[in-house]
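PT: before anyone asks, these are the final sequences, not the draft ones from last week. 949 residues across everything. Please model them as a single complex and drop the result in this thread when it's through.
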Amino acid sequence: MSKILIRGAKVLGGEPQDVLIDGETIAEVGTGLSAEGATVVEAGGQILLPGLVDLHTHLREPGREDSETVLTGTRAAASGGYTSVFAMANTHPVADTAGVVEQVWRLGKESGYCDVQPIGAVTVGLEGEKLAELGAMHDSAAGVTVFSDDGKCVDDAVIMRRALEYVKAFGGVVAQHAQEPRLTEGAQMNEGIVSAELGLGGWPAVAEESIIARDVLLAEHVGSRVHICHLSTAGSVEIVRWAKSRGIDVTAEVTPHHLLLTDELVRSYNPVYKVNPPLRTEKDVLALREALADGTIDIVATDHAPHPHEDKDCEWAAAAMGMVGLETALSVVQQTMVETGLLDWAGVADRMSFAPARIGRATGHGRPVSAGEPANLTLVDPAYRGVVDPADFASRSRNTPYEGRELPGRVTHTFLRGRATVVDGKLA
Amino acid sequence: MMRHLISAADLTRDDAVLILDTAEEMARVADRPIKKLPTLRGRTICNLFFEDSTRTRISFEAAEKRLSADVINFAAKGSSVSKGESLKDTAQTLEAMGVDAVVIRHGASGAPYRLATSGWIDAPVVNAGDGTHQHPTQALLDAFTMRRRLVGRDTGLGQDLAGRRITLVGDVLHSRVARSNVDLLHTLGAEVTLVAPPTLVPVGVETWPCEVSYDLDAVLPKSDAVMMLRVQRERMNAAFFPTEREYSRRYGLDGERMAKMPEHAIVMHPGPMVRGMEITAEVADSDRCTVVEQVANGVSVRMAVLYLLLGGSEPAVTTTTPAARTEENK
Amino acid sequence: MDTQLDPRQYGDDARPVLEGPDIARVLTRIAHEIVERAKGADDVVLLGIPTRGVFLARRLAEKLASITGTKIPVGSLDITMYRDDLRMRPARAIGRTEIPADGIDGRLVVLVDDVLFSGRTIRAALDALGDIGRPRAVQLAVLVDRGHRELPIRADYVGKNLPTSLRETVKVLLAEEDGRDTVLLGSKPAS
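LR: through. Structure below.
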């Protein structure tokens, strides 16, 4: 295998160093490394991070290949600096059997752009009634460790309790989509000042917070770990903070869009801003940033949710919920967390690589940038400024809320086990 | 220049007064032997109704015909819409047929705003009621009715509703009429009070330019006009209130309550009334109740809106198009 | 000459062609002509075309009343909605139409306007009248006839014939609206 020398990169934002990749692993990290026999990548002071890990991606295959496939989704992931993504289970058919998760896992292997770790459904058909064969999915070639009915909440307290208990046998974790269903019937956007004015069905914060409160108490009671998907309110932050202070084994994620956007945008009635959980208020956004900085929220996860044009080019109520995020996540985190001084690049590496890999037990990902580790790496140019143009996306879908917005930073190179998947900002 | 009428909140005080004054002139046409003006001859207006609403549709149709426009009525039921055609495709089809303006009623809040701002069509859009968002011509006809009754038909010309105390009672949460009225009445200088059980007031109401009360009896003696909003019986099943009887007892308007209102005060209702629920027959049939007038005034007000938006090469109403309200402040 | 004139509105060289006393005099003459031709003005209804035609109609009605000793019904007829150039200009506020209580059926309607020019306003007024009733006859009184007719329309009573070029403007100012009585002839401001 060939050698690659990344010269003059600020590893995790530190002093410039050289990183030599030999084959699939990092051979040496230091200064003044010999370039002999190696392809040289001049980093020129760009930031070198461990390959990013996304614990929450919708790849849509099987079933909705019109919006995304494993191949297009992993190309988008590589473009965004990711080397590993966890694929959510709400496909058609639902990933609730060993057969479906193995199919997704195999498609990921074939794509070659990014490792794909399938997430298994907690309940059969995401219907919240009967546990899916969690053990069989874990024992399959896909080796599933994260289980989620994402898109739907496991709202039955008994089913949730059993799932939390059951996955302990093989070190699994349940990732909860916290949304009390009765409180969100007909809900279209965050319930508050803007929803009152626009006459759109309100989605109260308490619908999320009440489920989180219940689930951390369940996790404590049965001694399991629980992961909270896309936490979106200031109140949720308080509950998770309290749970952690009690020693409850809870982890939580926040999406890039909840770190930047607010429900004021819904005044445009443009469904590109329609998402589940909904965009909240300024106060929530600030609380989420602070919680991500202090570690109350462990990770950033994209909730990358591709939808075809026609599902967004319509009236608000008829539109699908969700936004693509893989290709803009790092830029949004740079803008909201790094440039605000809330997080340094080592912190970014933790929230977007180390911690998600740890929660999802993604072997070979989220490792330190040091000799002997797998060469899963992302090189970022933080000085870059560009306007988001969805036409540039590798994703099959274009439903980004950032179209026309200037965001900082750009992934210039991504390496998956020593192989460049992105070179000079372009897919290899 | 305002090309569309989407929300009562888009109207300035001067725009609203111009519409009301124009409507007074339009009302005179109804008194003539030939109730027709040639103003919109050769223009085609489509009434695009995705929701059943016979009375609003007929009112717009009467207004359009009195202005000599050609009228196409498009009801979504039984059309290609029920076969899955999108709002965008329907609108573009109509425009391709040469429609000069679209009057739209839609069950989804924001559908008219989308139609007007998404670049799907060029034609002016008039909102005839969208979901639980807005119903601006209803608010205008209500303000017209109030101005006539409380200020005077001739003395009202050029005037707003400064200092008038208007009370809206009922299902504010699900009411586009309430939202439009609060916006317009505030613009016209009136003091608005909403009265409803707390379950039927939206979270976030605190930023609206009005007062909120849960006590109808306390508000009635201080009201120049009381507008009763329709309360659908089905709301009871979603636990918004326990029973019809209890709702009527606490928030319904009967003769005894009406007697607490000042002598000059009027009772309004956007219709259709649920007699025995929010209003008793005694009140509905009294001289103080303006329901029938409101219907007649609706035609005049809609004529005024259509004339001012479509009568010239450019609209006479001066506000901007619905603001591109997409900016956020971070 | 007159510092109140706004050159942007009337042209730099606007000059009066009729002054207050002239206007009073011609209105008196028109009133007499109406009485003479209508043989007593018993069934005359005066309808002014907003804005200034309405003031002229009211002045004429007073003069007719003082000549005949009877009250002459006077009203207004707004023709905005009947114009043939609506779509060439921004939509404009409409004026008041006020028909006297007894209506116009079988009466002699005298339309009153300030300036007769292309004749299109009077064409619109005749259309509007047709939607209101059926007069015995319709006549037209104008303060100034400046020529350049585009339609086969003529005035029955003319205060002053004023030959003009198309580059010129004629503006009637009346005390009720403008604070003073005068008719100005000017040149069109360069556009």
